[in-house]
Design brief:
Number of helices: 22
Largest sheet: 8 strands, mixed, barrel
CATH architecture of the largest domain: Alpha-Beta Barrel
Bound molecules: ligand C2E, magnesium ion
CATH class of the largest domain: Alpha Beta
Distance between the termini: 112 Å
CATH topology of the largest domain: TIM Barrel
Strand order of the largest sheet: 13-14-16-17-18-19-20-21
Number of strands: 21
Number of domains: 3
Strand content: 15-25%
């Protein structure tokens, strides 16, 4: 509507003065009501919002246009105004008879006419679009787009509410972590669209198993979490109630799925934790349920497992360790220990750098107690970089001591470190920055690391080998390397796993395996080193079958750098004496 129209069609007063009425320009519906709520005046926007000619509005009760659901609310608003409460505002639904309803923002205030008669001024704006946007934002922030289920954020919110309720009413809650068994196979074999379809059907089945007031959320991938509130105040009874629901869920999920033309059968594993508000950490509860779910997987899948307190203590300890680990690098708590490697003649040829964590409370920790945690938390990359740089620095230090035997250094490479796109650059730059001799540097990789795309893998290894660095296959014999795989990898040495060395004199199979590994290595042109050699007899046997090098407690435990240097000095001196 243009300015002239507005001026012409304005309220009676405005028309009389021929001046455009501001009330018709502002994008807000404006009403003047008398003390009994009848419309005395309205602007054009108001008329348009209510779908009527503005004259048709006059003398009509304004309440007539308020939606049924909000009548009481509007009456309350008017009452507050009459009670002298000052201007009021609220959001409510306006439903003009014969016209579509809409959401409106309403401001009401008392005023007086020029003659002093009390009136009510009311401003009305259509906020349907605004509310729709707000709802959309809420949906995107709190719901999973594929299944329409609440997401992790909303679940945590609801979990807090259930915990709060539990602190008031003493009732237990239960949290169930559910993961489909072998879901990856569905994606791999049937494609992602079918995988999505399956997830949607699973979410429907989960919803149908829950009681009113319970929640199910999708955490991502094929992981769902179910939250049950208001279970018994008795812990054992509450656990039993949760168990019944868990069984119902497992049965429902094990029914065949129709994925378009395909019939698919699948199962799920469930981890359950029963709680009261005393276990006050929502994230911790989720971790507990997750840990219990892994127990269910390990126990053979298609079952539910309760979280037990011993496991709870372990999870708490792990969380604490992860926290400590974030500080450990800054506090220089990591150290490298070195374990001697010798050749056939018993001469030192090098060392394997083995990581240790000098934990402030737990003492010296071996990698088994923290490497997997470092992988989960993503800290492993920083840690691996530290190992790389420290080992290079140590190699340089050793090489400065004239008279020391030329000592090679092997470091263990982590799967994530190897897979990192910057791996080659990291090795190149660590060697260049430190000035370490690449020919004395060895990288120990494991078979599991070598399962990726062969061309990428070989490319990376060749680029590093071009620097002069050598590769060694650690824990050989425990993985699944195929022979053709082995042949293509640019390796220099196989490291026979210590499990074969351990029983090499105690049974019939291990000596046979040890012989086979040596023969295989040699036939591929690789050297073979045995690790975990603990006794003279093991050493003698392995030397006899042709092992090229040895490592183990028999020659020396892993030890700090200074001790290692002293050991090398002693061994080379005694070797010289023997030679003289
Ligand atoms: P690994 O590379 O196979 O290392 C050999 C392990 O056997 C070491 O355990 C070593 O202390 C132990 N060992 C050596 N000689 C003997 C022996 O005669 N008898 C027995 N029973 N054991 C022996 P450690 O230091 O606990 O390391 C365990 C594993 O942790 C290593 O296995 C390696 O896979 C990993 N690791 C060690 N350091 C690092 C590191 O800096 N980075 C990464 N990513 N992994 C590391
Ligand atoms: Mg190793
Ligand atoms: Mg090993």
């Amino acid at each position: 509507m243009n300015q002239a129209d507005l001026a012409q069609a304005g309220t009676a007063d405005a028309a009389a003065s021929q001046v455009p009425d501001l009330r018709n320009i502002a994008p807000v519906g404006y009403f003047m009501l008398d003390a009994s709520g009848l419309i005395e005046d309205a602007n054009l926007i108001a008329a348009r919002l209510l779908g009527r000619d503005h004259r048709a509005l006059l003398a009509k009760p304004f309440a007539h246009f308020i939606g049924q659901e909000d009548q009481a609310r509007f009456a309350q608003l008017c009452q507050m105004l009459r009670d002298g409460g000052g201007p009021q505002s609220c959001e409510l639904r306006v439903a003009p008879p014969g016209h579509p309803a809409f959401w409106a923002h309403l401001i009401v205030s008392t005023t007086r006419s020029v003659t002093g008669v009390p009136l009510v001024m009311l401003l009305l704006s259509d906020i349907t679009e605004h509310r729709r946007n707000a709802e959309e934002i809420y949906r995107l922030a709190y719901y999973d787009p594929l299944t329409g289920l609440p997401n992790r954020r909303l679940l945590l919110d609801r979990l807090h509410q259930v915990m709060l309720a539990s602190s008031r009413n003493g009732l237990h809650g239960a949290l169930m972590f559910m993961d489909l068994d072998h879901f990856k196979l569905v994606n791999d074999r049937l494609g992602h669209d079918m995988g999505d379809l399956l997830l949607q059907q699973v979410s429907e089945r989960l919803k149908s198993c829950l009681r009113e007031g319970d929640s199910v959320a999708r955490m991502g991938g094929d992981e769902f979490v179910l939250l049950l509130g208001a279970l018994s105040s008795n812990g054992a009874e509450a656990a039993n109630q949760a168990k019944v629901i868990a069984e119902k869920i497992l049965t429902a999920l094990a029914q065949p799925y129709h994925l378009q033309e395909q019939i698919h059968s699948g199962t799920a594993s469930l981890g359950i934790v029963v709680f009261t508000d005393e276990q006050g950490d929502a994230e911790m509860l989720l971790k507990s349920a997750d840990a219990a779910m892994y127990q269910a997987k390990n126990a053979g899948r298609n079952q539910a497992r309760f979280y037990d307190p011993a496991m709870q203590a372990a999870v708490a300890a792990r969380a604490e360790l992860e926290q400590d680990m974030r500080q450990a690098l800054l506090r220089h708590e990591f150290v490298l220990h070195y374990q001697l490697q010798v050749d056939k003649a018993g001469q030192p040829i090098g060392a394997e750098a083995l990581l240790r964590w000098n934990h402030p409370r737990q003492g010296l920790l071996a990698p088994a107690s923290f490497i997997s945690l470092a992988e989960e938390s993503g800290l492993v990359l920083v840690l691996s970089q530290w190992v790389l740089e420290s080992a290079c620095a140590q190699l340089v230090e050793w090489s400065r001591h004239v008279g020391d035997v030329l000592c090679a250094m092997a470091i263990n490479v982590n799967t994530l470190q190897f897979a990192n796109a910057d791996f080659v650059a990291a090795i190149t730059s660590a060697l260049a920055t430190s000035g370490a001799n690449p020919k004395l540097f060895k990288l120990e990789v494991t078979e599991s690391m070598l399962s990726g795309k062969m061309t990428d893998l070989v490319g990376k290894m060749n680029a590093i080998r071009a620097l002069g660095v050598r590769f060694e296959l650690d824990d050989f014999g425990t993985g699944y390397s195929s022979l053709s795989h082995l042949k293509r990898l640019p390796l220099d040495q196989l490291k026979m796993d210590q499990s074969f060395v351990k029983d090499v004199l105690n049974n019939d199979t291990d000596p046979a395996i040890a012989r086979a590994i040596v023969a295989l290595g040699h036939s591929l042109g690789l050297k073979v080193i045995a690790e975990g050699v603990e006794t003279a007899a093991q050493h003698a046997f392995l030397a006899d079958i042709g092992c090229d090098a040895f490592q183990g407690y028999y020659f020396g435990h892993p030890m700090p750098a200074a001790e290692f240097r002293a050991l090398i000095g002693k061994r080379s001196a005694s070797h010289q004496t023997q030679g003289d």
